[in-house]
Each structure stands twice: as C-alpha cells, then as structure tokens.
Specification:
Helices cover about 45% and strands about 10% of the residues. The relative contact order is 0.07.
C-alpha cells in the first residue's frame, strides 16, 4: 500500500526550500494523492500533480506558488483527478485546446476577442459598471466555454444552441439574457466585417422554432435546494474542505446572501466589532443598502481568513479577482458526488431530485423559517433582501429589527451546526 504523504499546512509550504545540488526537488504536500511542490535550485516553486492516466504517468502543472495557494492547488488537483475518473486526460485536453486555439486564430477573429471588442464599442450603452460586469460574466460563464475559441465566421445556430440548451429550462432568465448578448456580439462582428449572413442567435424565425418559449419553462427554473434534514451533515462536510470557495460557500450559507454578494464582498464592508456586513446599494439586486447581522460563526470565519496584500476582496479567486459562481457550484457538485460514490443519496432537491446548488441554499433558509420556526415570514424576506411591500419594509427597517434578525440568524447557525435550537424555534414532531 502506497505511503500517505503528511498533510502540510500553508506555513509549512512557505518554508520549503531547495536542499542544494542539481535538479529540481519534489515535495509531497498531502491532502490530495500525488500533489507535489516542485522546488528549483533558483528558488522557484510550482505545483505538480503526478498521477497515472491509463497506463501513462502524467505530471500536470497547476501553476506557481504563491500565486496559486496551497488550498487552491488542492482544489485544482481534485478537479484534475475528477476529470481522469471521467476518462479525460487533462494534459491531452490542454494540448488539444491550445492547438484548437492556434488553428482558430489563423482562420479569423475568435468569439472571445469579439466579446472584448463589442464591449469596448458599447461602453455608452451600459447603465453602470455593475451592468457591464453582469453582461460580461454571463458570456464568460456560459458562452466562452462552448464557443469562445471559435471564429465568429464559423458560429452557427447549432453552436449557439450548445450554449443555451443546458440552462434554458433550469436558468431561463439567465439563458434569455445570454441569447441576447450572444446576438449583440455577433451583430457587432457582422457590422465590423468579421462575418456575413444571418445572425444565428436571432430569436424570431430562428431559435424560436427550436426552443420552448421562456414563459413556458420559467416556472421550472427554481434553483435546486438542499433539504433541511441534510443541511447539518452537508455543512459539516463543507467545513472540512479548504480554500476560499469553501469559506465563501460557508459564509453564504450562514448569511443567506446571494452568490454575487458574497463573491464580491470587500473587507471595508465588514464591521467585525459590531458583527455587521453592510453591502452598498450598487452591489445589491434591489439597488438598496443591505445590512446583514453576522453570527459568531460568521465572524470567526472572517477573522480566520488571510488578507491578501493589495486585494480588498474577502474571498478572492485564484488570480486575485472575484471567485466565479462556477467555483461554488462545482464545490457543491463534488460534495454531492462524493456522498453518492460512498453509497448515499447525495444532496438532492426534494421536488426536482436535482443536486443542490448555491443559490438554492437561500430556499433552504426560507424553508427552515417557515417549517421549523415561529419567526415571521416577512422578517425572512428582509434577510433575503427580497422586494416586499413598502409598508412592511418601512416597519422592518426600524433600528431594533437588525437585532431581531440577528437572533434569527443565530438560531439558523445553531440549526446548521446541529446544536440546540433557539427559543423562537419549534421542533417539528416533538
């Protein structure tokens, strides 16, 4: 049986140094089988995942240290191992993608380049920087993985459908916006002389004949939610995982906030002395400042996080920018897959039987308030930053309401952690 490497911590990794002599040194860091830190005689440090792909040994580069942290390297290593388990060779995949990119650039402007050009041309069309970022994020998450490497001259209706069909029934609103944004980019490319012919992302007389009307599938677009009885076990598993995505997902759960609000959270929004997170209006869906009471667990989580020099984000991504929504979604997917692999049912939505997603955690919180507590539903709506009637909102914006919400969120944290329930909570079936 192969020897299991000792699991090193961030400080251990930082202290590692080349022992002298010629050649590179490889140090196993533990946490993920086959993950090494490669040390050069000149002081360089890079992450390498060494594993068998079929009968071939592969050394898969995962980036340099400290740009890629220990936690991020472990996340990347797990992702690579997941690919191998699905029959994908990460090295060959990377080579093929590079070759495809080179060939595509030879043939003409790529869709990814057209996005940049179209955005630059449409600067005046955006209400604010947030709108511009949302426009870009939609394309980055759902279009570029499928058609980003294709020349705009070769994008046809089938290529557009590959972007839309996976989310048309589950994220209908997002999908309709995506279609319009792809259409806008391709329209710019046509006018700029990089393609000819009809726009394959056009709705009328084109995609309308191939996709169901958005209004007919929108009711099916609820995000899969974690079932209440599964929540404590799920959170316990999450807390065993390292990295900013895991901590962002935990913080999202404790606060019942939206993914974008958490991923864009800044240190200057955090008042740890008063246990408050104050989200400015421009970062909120409703364009109103939102105060979030922080539980003791949330404060402890924040205090334990490292602050990166020159980076104001609380949960930065691997390259210093915002974490992607996909990073959180993939983490939840891995949790579900691991339980299923161990013989369990996984973390499934009670109704749709689909695996739970980050946004569905807000529904889990709402279910908990309705089914397991005596807290008013309107208070939960305020906590979720939903739009409610002006009269109710005025009442709930009084100074004492933040403290009432603080008690509610503390009871929510207790429930998630499997502790005794608070005084305003009713045990069902007791």
């Amino acid at each position: 049986m192969p020897k299991i490497a000792q699991e090193l911590g961030p400080l251990d990794v930082k202290r590692l140094a080349h022992g002298g002599g010629r050649g590179n040194a490889m140090v196993a860091v533990g946490g993920v089988n086959g993950l090494y830190l490669q040390l050069t005689s000149k002081g360089g440090k890079t992450w390498v995942l060494r594993m068998l792909v079929g009968s071939r040994r592969r050394d898969i580069g995962l980036g340099g240290f400290p740009t890629v942290t220990l936690a991020q390297a472990r996340d990347k290593a797990r992702e690579a191992r997941d690919k191998v388990e699905r029959g994908v060779d990460p090295v060959e995949e990377r080579k093929a993608a590079k070759a495809k990119l080179i060939e595509a650039r030879r043939k003409g402007m790529l869709f990814s380049d057209a996005v940049d050009k179209a955005l630059a041309a449409k600067l005046d069309a955006f209400r604010n920087e947030k709108h511009r970022a949302q426009w870009r994020s939609t394309l980055d998450n759902y279009a570029l993985p499928e058609i980003g490497g294709l020349p705009v001259s070769q994008i046809d209706t089938a290529a557009v459908l590959r972007c839309l069909q996976p989310i048309w029934s589950t994220k209908t609103e997002t999908a309709t916006r995506l279609r319009g944004r792809i259409e806008a980019v391709l329209s710019w490319a046509t006018v700029a002389g990089h393609r000819t012919g009809d726009n394959p992302a056009r709705w009328a007389g084109n995609l309308k004949e191939l996709l169901p009307a958005a209004r007919k599938v929108a009711k099916e677009s609820n995000h899969p939610a974690l079932q209440l009885d599964n929540a404590p076990a799920w959170l316990a598993d999450l807390r065993k995982r390292e990295g900013f995505p895991a901590r962002a997902l935990e913080f999202l759960t404790l606060t019942a906030a939206r993914s974008g609000e958490v991923r864009g959270a800044r240190w200057d929004e955090m008042d740890l002395e008063h246990a408050l997170w104050i989200i400015p209006a421009h970062r909120m869906k409703m364009q109103r400042e939102h105060r979030v009471p922080l539980t003791a667990e949330a404060v402890a989580l924040l205090k334990a996080l490292p602050k990166l020099d020159g980076n104001a984000l609380v949960f930065p991504g691997a390259r210093g920018g915002q974490l992607s929504d996909m990073a959180l979604s993939m983490l939840m997917k891995r949790q579900h897959t691991a339980v299923v692999a161990a013989g369990g049912n996984g973390y499934l939505d009670r109704v749709s039987k689909r695996s739970a997603v980050p946004h569905g955690l807000r529904s889990t919180f709402r279910d908990w308030v309705a089914e397991r507590t005596q807290y008013p539903g309107d208070m939960a709506e305020v906590a979720l930053a939903h739009r409610i009637s002006s009269a109710v909102e005025a009442a709930y914006r009084r100074g004492d309401m933040i403290e009432k919400r603080r008690r509610m969120m503390a009871d929510w944290a207790d429930f998630l952690s499997g502790r005794a329930l608070g005084g305003n909570v009713v045990r069902i079936g007791a």
